[in-house]
Design brief:
The chain has 13 helices and 12 strands. The strands form 2 sheets. It has a 6-stranded parallel β-sheet, with helices on both faces. A 6-stranded mixed β-sheet has the order 7-6-8-9-10-12, sandwiched between helices. Keywords: DNA-binding, Repressor, Transcription, Transcription regulation.
């Protein structure tokens, strides 16, 4: 099998030095004529030369790589978030490495350590399982820039989030305006800090409207479609006319549970979700939900991290993006 194309092969065919090829391909070839630059790039493409990653790092002083740690790679929210990071990173010629820790602190600590070993330029932490000890002993100790996303509870360094408290209040206010007086909440059994803010927004909006709030109105389960499906019977036992689900996945799981019991949304139960994932628009009926600018959040996260990489001593940034109610067909007047 033919060996890997080397930088010396490009240099020999172009009739220039290895240093010349290296400088041109690493964006530092301004002192060479345009003809020489074009010739080197053309030969690179003809030979299929790909620079050695470690050698390039030594020359550039940067891996042009960022790490992203998320709690669940199967969750559509994080898929959209990562797409936003990827698009922004591509524009900056960065490569994102995405790792899913599944809420395991030990695994995510290991991921952080391995990313540092691979000399990533920075880290986006979207998982609540990455704790202060990991940040202090690995990221801060090694001078690695990082950014937190709203699921992580730490108030440390740069952060990009949305107003989860307001989003929940908007959802419940919508149901109250439709005439619902007994409103349940489909909640998660292992809430992150932003999900806890949604619970508080739900409670405060009910109380401000003078509506009943009892413990049985809050139904908990795993944060997934299966969790919503399994909670269906308990939701019905609340005798609520409407439900606010802590995320769209749980709402969609509840759809199936109701359907199997011969019930219809919204005729028998109005439902409002949270996140506005792609699927929410295509279920039947389309789901009323709180939209977060998830794709934009990914882009803002990368740009903010890049600013931290370039200006390590700048003041910490706390960026909060807006949310909005998207009314579809899963909620009705009573």
């Amino acid at each position: 099998m033919k060996g890997k194309v080397r930088i010396i092969d490009v240099a020999q065919k172009a009739g220039v030095s290895v240093t010349t090829v290296s400088q041109i391909l690493n964006g530092k070839g301004e002192r060479f004529s345009q003809a020489t630059q074009d010739k080197v790039r053309k030969i690179r493409d003809e030979l299929g030369y790909v620079p050695d990653f470690n050698a390039r790092n030594l020359i550039m002083g940067s891996a042009k790589t960022i790490g992203i740690i998320i709690p669940n790679i199967t969750n559509p929210f994080f898929a959209t978030f990562v797409r936003g990071v990827e698009v922004a990173a591509q524009r900056g010629d960065f490569i994102p490495l995405v790792l899913s820790g599944n809420g395991n602190p030990d695994l995510e600590r290991q991921y952080v350590e391995q990313l540092i070993q691979r000399t990533v330029d920075g880290l986006i932490i979207a998982s609540p399982a990455v704790n202060k000890d990991t940040i202090d002993h690995f990221l801060k100790a090694n001078g690695v820039p990082y950014l937190l996303i709203d699921q992580n509870p730490l108030d440390d360094g740069d952060r990009v989030s949305t107003d989860d408290y307001l989003g929940a209040k908007l959802a419940v206010e919508h149901l109250i305006k439709l005439g619902h007086k007994r409103i349940a909440m489909l909640y998660c059994d292992k809430p992150s800090v932003n999900q806890a803010q949604r619970l508080q927004g739900y409670k405060d909006q009910l109380q401000s409207a003078g509506l009943e709030l009892t413990d049985d109105l809050i139904v908990t389960g795993p944060l997934s479609k299966l969790g919503g499906y399994q909670a269906s019977e308990q939701v019905l036992q609340t005798k609520a006319s409407a439900v606010f689900a802590v995320n769209d996945e749980m709402a969609i799981g509840l759809y199936r549970g109701l359907n199997e019991r011969g019930l219809e949304v919204p005729a028998d139960l109005s439902i409002v979700g949270y996140d506005n994932i792609d699927l929410s628009e295509y279920v039947n009926p389309p789901l009323t939900t709180i939209a977060q600018p998830v794709f934009e959040m990914g882009q803002v996260a990368f740009r903010t991290l890049l600013q931290r990489i370039e200006q390590p001593d700048a003041p910490a940034q706390k960026i909060k993006l807006p949310v909005e109610l998207v009314v579809r067909e899963s909620s009705r007047k009573v």
